[in-house]
Design goal:
The complex is a heterodimer.
Chain A: H1 2-23, H2 26-53, H3 62-75, H4 86-93, H5 97-101, H6 107-137, H7 146-171, H8 174-177, H9 181-195, H10 206-214, H11 222-228, H12 235-264
Chain B: H1 2-18, H2 22-50, H3 58-78, H4 80-83, H5 85-91, H6 94-99, H7 104-109, H8 118-134, H9 141-172, H10 179-190, H11 199-208, H12 211-214, H13 216-222, H14 226-229, H15 233-238, H16 241-259
Helix pairs in contact in B: 2-8, 3-8, 3-9, 3-10, 9-13, 9-16
The chains are: A mainly alpha, B mainly alpha.
Amino acid sequence: MRSFYLTVNVYFAFVTKSFQKRMQYRVANLAGLTTNFFFLLVHIFVYTAFYAASTEPQPLSLNEIITYFVLCQVSFMLMPFFGARSEMTQAIKDGSVALQLTKPVDFHAYWFADECGRACYFLLMRGLPTFLISILFFQVTFPQHLTVLMAFVLSMTLAIFMSTAITITIFSSAFWTLDTSGVSGMSGSVIMLFSGMLVPIALWPEGLAQIAEWLPFAGLIDIPFSIYLSKITGVAIWTAVGKQMMWCLIFIGLGRLFLRRGFSRLVIQGG
Amino acid sequence: MYHLSLYLHFVKLRIRSQMEYRFSFVFDLFSQASIAVIDFFMIALLFNRFKELAGWSLWEVGFLYGMIGVCFAVAEMVGRGFDVFQNSVVRGDFDTILIRPVGTFFQVFSHDFLLRRVGRFSQAFVILLIANSQLTISWSFVKVGYLLVSLVSGTCFFIGLFVIGATSCFWTIQSIEIINIFTNGGVFMGSYPFSIYRHWFRHFFTFIVPLACVNYFPALFLMEKVTSSGVSSFGVHLAPIAGFLFLGITMLFWRWGVLHYQSTGH
């Protein structure tokens, strides 16, 4: 029991350290906030114009679309899209990963904790302000029931875990390529599309939406936000959350496998 | 002439060094293209559902998209030196640049050449070609010339943005991320007709950051939409000059910025 407590304590310390590390970049955060807001604004302009010209009823109302994109920008930095997470690649490239290997901690768990700290930071310092400002300027809808809110929180937490697991899986490719900008760029764009970040999956044509259904990435954006907007209700919530959980475990397993393989062929450059 | 041969020599070196990570290079080339394909795919998805956007069809928007994409890809390819300039300031490398017998602007400009942007360039160019084949634009000598000038002007516009970002490093050391709003954000918003944006937004991106002048107005002229859009045709003819002017002003800003450089030391 004591050793379990110690283990939790160690990884929790990694989470807080990672959070504190990011707290130093306040100006950069302000710039990022502006960027988030700009993209949100353009998205809203575009959809407002599309909706204005459309006479047919749509599966999501304009207000719901706006809420959806507000949530997208709130969680944008938590998602496994591109860039930002170059520390891992850098560590593999310049060999400082060797230092981390000497520590008596599980490497995957360490990175996972680090990423979670990062997620907490961006949720609090980037997501929350984005949401609060958006409420002032746009018509954001809120969940009508407490249960919906709770289901959303659960689903969003799983989405963040899944994102973390995917990130580690992608970046472990650095063991083979040393420069991950290609791999992360390509996977990032596919993930972005099939998560529903660019266009909500409810607006997709039938066949394509079917494909998105079978891929894991809807669990990052579309599932949690659909729960928020009460587009997924009742028993369907449990299936959706179960799907997120399953993919979460699969990606954690995959990441661990890649890391083990990677370390077995690792050559430290320099010294 | 001396500068040109020097520049070409640098480019050759950069390309050779980028080829060292060959797998990553090829992968990046495809990823660049695939990101862009998905980008346009998203627009197509929306048109599949909504049919039209403020009176613009999918391929009319595709034309806008292709134009801005080509400009940005070329700007990123050649203007990369300014994009990564903050490293030189952080490390104090700019000191070395100052003591060399060539202008600072030229040195930073020729510092890097990002060959892998060819991927993104080809994608945007293909979209532009497809859009052109889907639309019935009556091409003439004037129009082809106007298009070429607009594309060069658009490229200058984006390079100008990189220069602003780089120059700000003289004061802030780290580059100001805000410039991303205008570069990546510019590509994003430039892919849609400007008529969908609010007044203040439109004016800002016409008169202060002249994005509309290098993309939307030229597209209006080429597609003969000027009269229906209610924009003055005189302004549309002159619009592409804005990109060159913008780069010129940012070059002056650069010269002024260099005077304020304080070495971070070695």
